[in-house]
Amino acid sequence: MSYKFITKNKKYTPMSSPGNSGVAIDSTVLKAIELGTRLFKSGEYLQAKRIFTNALRVCDSYSQEQIMRIRNAYQLDTARPDNKRLYHPRYIKILDNICACYEKLNDLKSCLDVSQRLLKLEPGNIKCYIRCTRTLIKLKDWKRAYKTCSRGLQLCNNDSNHLRQQKQFIKNNMVQKQDGKRSYIDPSEETKIAKKRKNNNFLESLPKKKIKGSTKKTDLVGNLPIEILPIIFQRFTTNELVTLSLVCNKWRDKILYHLDCFQEFNLAPINFKNFVKFMDFLQQNFTRTYRKYILSQVKVSSRITSEELRITQLLFSKMPKCINIERLILSMPTLTTTQIFKLMVRGGTDFFARLLELSLMITYRPDKQHELEILQTCPLLKKIELIFVNSLVPIFDGNNSVGRDGSFNVMARHTNMQIPTVDNDEQGIVEEKVIYSELEKITLICDKKKIKNFPLCRALLRGQFPLLQKLTITGVTFPMNNQDIINFQWLLNFPDLKELWIEDNDNCELSKFLQLLKFSNVWKNLEKLTFRENKLYPIINLDEDQPVTNDNEVPSMLFYKENLQNLEKLDLMGTSISGSALTRLCEQEYLDGRKLRSLNIGNCPNIQFPNNHAHAARMILDVNAVLKRLSKLEEINLSHLSSLNDSTMKSFIINVPFLENLKRLDISHNFEITGISIYEFLKKFQMDHDNEAGGQPLAYLNIDGCSQVSHITVNMIRAQNLVTQVDCVYERDVWRKFGINSYSYS
Predict the structure, then answer these.
(1) Do 261 and 255 contact (CB within 8 A), yes or no?
(2) 260 has a pLDDT exceeding 90
């Protein structure tokens, strides 16, 4: 869009020669008004204001002779009785448009200045009074607004409904502001007040029993049967129930009678004084009934770092025995695994006997490895989440210093797990392999900058979690001196695994992971696989060559299909996999297209699309072959793909018929793609998915960080209902590290 016909120079004279006609002179202003109006309607108020301002400068640059010729062209008078200056015929309209722009931009002071200027230039224009009054109302200048509105009504002989409504609105607000001040009283209103006062006096003279009988009050909590109250209380959160108990003693007794309704306690963050009050509340109310209570979740974190130890000690030692907690979320970053284990032992086993889920944000002690003893203290534990934010290593122990593989050397020296005994202060060693037969989910998250170890490494190697179904590992360092870890041989211990999440780990390569899937039947029913590398490794090609064998041996088969055929979600974001490797996974039907619902290949630099002039054919992803075999996909993530542009997007537009089940599409942070190809894709998607009610739009589209996509295109997509929900934030931060965008507690 060009703005070259408008100048910012106030001395500019658009008339080049005396022979120009008035209409020719006026063409510049008319074009500016037309352009500004179009920008205003599209929501570009700042640009529209600039256009109108420049048009006003052009009008001011005209001489009186030029203005007379323009007014003659419009058949307007060219002489005023007061000999005042003549203005351009569109001068008032331009000022009014500028005023409207200021109002939309919420610049009320400038809007008021322009509207008052309008009133001086054209006092008989009712529209000017309406706009000026509206601006004063927004500024809450009630007196000036009332005067301006009254003056406008006088000019139009009280014939403007809009001004009358504004005047009534101003009067109502002025009455509210004048409480306690002298004001005019309407005689009719005074008569109504007197009658109302008389009726009130009559009611006061009635006996109290009559008044009580005639006034109906409903106490929802107090009058309802006690058996019905639990059904109502179950819909309130714990915080809401505590607030309701403060209404009156009757409500408090009713609520505390139904302690089963208190399911979750979120004490994050809390200081020690308030935590003592919380423990007293549990002791006073839950112990008086002599029955067992089950809390679904307790979440505790200390507001003050120095109080973390005292809060944890009080929690473990003073928790009433009648309370069983199913899920405990404890955030104590300064406490170590050793301190947590000792507090658990001292507090007794009753607290952890029926604990089903445990989440700990603590400091790791690589020299003690008490995280296994923590698991052993909770015999019924089904889910453990360990978030290590720091590492504490004794100064004298050089083998376990941060940055070395000391913990792995210790692990290699001992074939069996060593369990320190509490009585001997961790001096006695018991050789025993403990099987955690109840544990189903393990989440291990480490701060890679501070922890250079692999917690739980020994237990994973020895297969101490036979029923494990979900495993999340991020931020750890795979030991270079242990080939079983680097080659993922330890995954053979978990045949029942349903979800595997490996991300941002050092010495962790997807190529070695695929080698395991190639030659070993690892899983029976893996449904979700997430594997993300933290740096770029050599390009991965799906090598299907059989291993070299002797003549008498039968060549081993490939197990890609057995391991991947039940996948519902595949996330290879940020890995070194090539486009040809992913194509082969689909063409050879290693991935079952009838089951796979989600595919994430964002930020994969070795995946290129056709028509992109790729350097090697092995990097090309055959979009047609992939989408044809994965026809049940509901979610596709193509973010951070350098090869995705308008040219390569055509391959997706052509294959839209194979995306009949697609609901969510993420193409964020692709800086070369424009709104044209996105619009064509969405239009094609809607046309190819027609139903009886019309075209079916895409449920969700993410184009954050796509700087080449115009906001006009985004508004058009929303207006035409091509997408139910679209996210478009140009300044969205690019995230690559493991964090809130990757994992959430579930």
Answers:
(1) yes
(2) no
Query: In angstroms, what CA-CA distances link 337 with 274, 364, 455, 572?
Result: 25, 6, 11, 33
Residue 297 bridge partners (DSSP): 264
Running DSSP on this structure, what letter comes out for residue 631?
Answer: T
pLDDT at position 542, please? 78
Report, at the CATH architecture level, how domain 22-177 is classified: Alpha Horseshoe (1.25)
Distance CA 459, CA 437 (A): 13
CA neighbor of 386 nearest in space, from 426, 325, 432, 333: 333
Check whether the bond before 610 is cis (ω within 30° of 0): no
Greater confidence (139 vs 582) lies with 582
pLDDT digits (tens, 9 = 90+) for 385-411: 999 999 987 765 544 433 344 444 444
Helix (H) or strand (E) holding 359, with range, is strand 357-364
- The Cα–Cα gap between 586 and 72 comes to 77
Check residues 735 and 373 and name the one with the higher pLDDT.
373
Question: How high is the pLDDT of residue 681?
Answer: 93
Tell me the CA distances in angstroms from 138 to 109, 152, 172, 637, 709, one per residue in order: 10, 18, 15, 46, 36
DSSP 136-185: HHHTT-HHHHHHHHHHHHHHTTT--HHHHHHHHHHHHHHHHHTTTS----
Cα-based angle 232, 234, 237 (whole degrees, multiple of 5): 115
Residue-level pLDDT at 161: 76
Please tell me the distance from the alpha carbon of residue 365 to that of residue 52, in angstroms, as a whole number.
69
Query: Is 644 in contact with 609 (CB distance < 8 Å)?
Result: yes
Strands (E), 303-349: 323-325, 327-336
Select from 709, 634, 627 the least CA-distant residue to 670.
709
Q: What pairs with residue 694 in β-bridges?
A: 691
* 59/685 Cα distance (integer angstroms): 50
- pLDDT tens digits along 284-308: 777 777 778 888 889 999 999 999 9
Q: 263-502 adopts what CATH topology?
A: 3.80.10
In one-letter notation, the amino acid at residue 101 is C
Q: Nearest Cα to 372, choosing from 497, 480, 254, 462?
A: 462
